[in-house]
Structures are given as C-alpha cells and as structure tokens.
Amino acid sequence: MYAGTRARRMLAVGAGAIVLGLAGCGGDDDDGGGGGTATTTGGSAQAPADTSFELTIGDLVPLTGDLSPFGPPGRKSADLALTQIRDAMGEAGVDTTVSVEHSDTESSPQAAVQAARQLISGGAGCLAGPWASSETIAVAESVAARQRTPLVSPSSTDSGITDLDDDGFVYRTAPSDNLQARALADVVEEELGGTDGTISLAARNDAYGQGFIDKFRAAWEEKGGRTTGPVLYDPEQPSYNSEAGEIVAGNPDAYVIIDFFETYGKMGASLVRTGRFDPTRLFTADGLASDRIPDTIPTRALAGARGTRPGTPESGAVVDQFARIYRAAGGAPRQTFDAQNFDATMLCYLAALAAGSSDGADIAEQMQAVSSPPGERFTFLELADGIRAIANGDEVDFDGVTGPIDFDDNGDPTAATYEVYRYGSDGVLRVDRLFEARATER
Fold it and tell me: Residue span of the signal peptide, if any (predicted)?
C-alpha cells in the first residue's frame, strides 16, 4: 500500500484568484489523495478488455451524530448517481454490474473506520465518504492505504488531508480549507468594510475546527487584521460557559466560529447566556450551514450569522437537471455537500470502468485520469457518451455537478464554487451570492 508518496503541494487562493459573483441568489435554496505511484496524470486509460465485472461502491454517510443533518441527503445523492449510472450503462451497452452499499459513520472516526472495513470486507472496491475530516483521516490511515481501496470524500475540507501519506488512495470533491479559509477572510473583509476590526476566533478542537481556524487566522492577519484566540473547545463537553465568556471578552468587532450543529447547540446556548453575544457579527462556514437553524440551536445564537460553504455553479443545464432529479426523487431535502457526494459516487464508477476492474488499487490508478484534462469533457448529462469513450480507451475529463473536479497530484480539486449565505431572523438560510476560488501553487 505504501509504494510511494506524491510530492505535496500547498494550495492557496492567489490575489487575483477569487472572482466574486455579484448576482445574488436570494433564495433558500497536496497529497490528500496522495501517492505518486498510484495515479496517472490525466493520461489515456487503456480500454478495458472486459467491462462485465461487478463493482460495489461503499457509501460512508453520517446518519447519526454531529453531522446527521448531512447524512440522508448524502445517501440520497449516492442513490441518484447509481440510477444515472445504470441508465447510462444500458444506453451505452456496457454490462458492468454496479451497486451502492450505505453505512453509518455515526460522525465518529472509530465508527467510520469500522464501517469502512465492513464495506470493504463485503466487496466494496471504492468508498464515497467519509464526511468529517477526522473520519477521513482515520479511514485513510487505518483502512484506505492499508487495504488499497480509494476513498472520495464529499465534504472533508481539512487542509491537513492534503499532506496525508496515503499512497494515492484519498481524494475529495470538496475543496481544501486552504481555499475556503482565505475565501472566508475575503468575505469578512468585504462585509466589514475593511480589516481594521478585531475578530474573536473559536472552533471545535478537532481536525476540521482547528485546521480551518488556523488557516483563517493566518489569512486575516496577512491582510493586516487583528484576532483574539482561538478558543478551542472539546466537542464532548456538556457546556461551554467559560469558553463562551472568553469568546465575547473585549467586545470584538466580529466572531469566526467553526463548528458542527450538535456541538454548537451547546456552545450557542452558552454564548446567548453571556448577554453580550450578537449573532449578526458571527461568521462561520459549511459545518453550520443548513436550510434553517435546527431546533437544537437557539435562534438567537445564529440568526443574522453569515458564512461560506462549497456549492454548485449558480445555473446551467447540469445544475438544473440535478436539482430536478433530486426534487423528483422525494425524501430528504437539499443540503450542503449533496452534489459533492453525487460526484464522488460517479468518480468511483468512472475510474473503475477506466481500469476495467473492481480492484481498489486499479481504480485509484485511474481516478485522476478520468477527472482531469486532457480528454473529452462530459457531465452526467452525457454519461452514456463518456462511458462509450472510456470503453473505447479514449481520454476523458468528467465535470461534476459542482463544476470541474480536475484532481491535482494530491487528490484535491483545483477550483471551487462557494456560496455566501446568511441566516434570516426567521432562521431560514438564504444565499446572497456566489464566487469562484481557484488553487494556486506556492
């Protein structure tokens, strides 16, 4: 499994690399993949001698725990991808047998490792998920690399995943926090009208929280801004009265708090109890983005808060059709990272088809090739054409619902669309605008 390691590259948002989308939506609605020997760099995949193999894609979703609001939409998106794959295979005349098996990670690294092992022992050759960065790191180190099975996380954004020694078996369709932390710093600067103020920083003490807040602090201070903290808190604590007092101390001009819903239910209540917390001065990120403020969080802890989250391009045939098929399927409503899990499931299948194999190591070798130039570009709307091209041995470049994936040598996407959102006084999330961020090398 540890046959080699890709050269690591750090991602940053270059000074001219963020283009702010001025049209507001207004509605509710480098090695992280690691491994120099395990992947190609967009070269042509040889035509499979036999496309009649059987592939099981393991879907690691958080149906319980901190990230449970994301689980049902993520599971639904994986199932939608499977339906699209099966329909397109029929049209293309390819007889691969494909299935998706779901397993609950419980929003826990230990449970995620156990779920991943069970899926692989049950025949899964590729994993979509896990979701939390701490889960992905644990599965990468304990399962994916050791059992030579690739994973494609739809939502793990911790910048430390880029530097994992995973031998080319870890990918993600969500952008690194190297990208989002700088993007959020730009949004905060714009919303505050400059960088003269002091920002109080806080985060859950795990890979996601600490990684994100450290990157944000560096980006904000690089702009000349001042910070206090960060206050890092244990997600397992029963209450956070002391930490909340530290966060509001000194009457800061704004707050940046990085957390998940379940923990923020307790932190938010503690912040409200201080009598000094103003949620309209709060900025946050994807971990606290939902259609509306959950019942477990006091409205006064989030109403008026603003944040960024990975999204999809504002419009276009691909985005519109995904929204239609998602809506038509019924069940769980849209949620952050649902499209990313759709794309992750698609990429597991396309890489397996390019490899002509359900073996994890073979799939990993083709993951970058099917997601990046050169090659014929296609989306899930032209999936049958893309399948035919792969079966013919042609170079392809799959673009997801989230936009171009274009995995770099580290398994990270090199561009991302972000939404700037705001919670209204009614607790409903509304998207103000979109912008694109691109990775640049340092």
Answer: none
- Helices then strands, each counted (H, E), the chain: 12, 16
CA–CA distance, 240 with 336 (Å, rounded to integer): 27
Q: Is 13 helix (H, G, I), strand (E, B) or coil?
A: strand
Structure letter (DSSP) for residue 266: H
- Where does 261-314 show beta strands of DSSP type E? 282-284, 306-310
> Which domains are seen in the chain, by residue range?
31-173+315-418 (3.40.50.2300), 178-312+425-441 (3.40.50.2300)
Residue 409 phi, psi (nearest 5): -65, -10
Cα distance between residue 254 and residue 188, in whole Å: 9
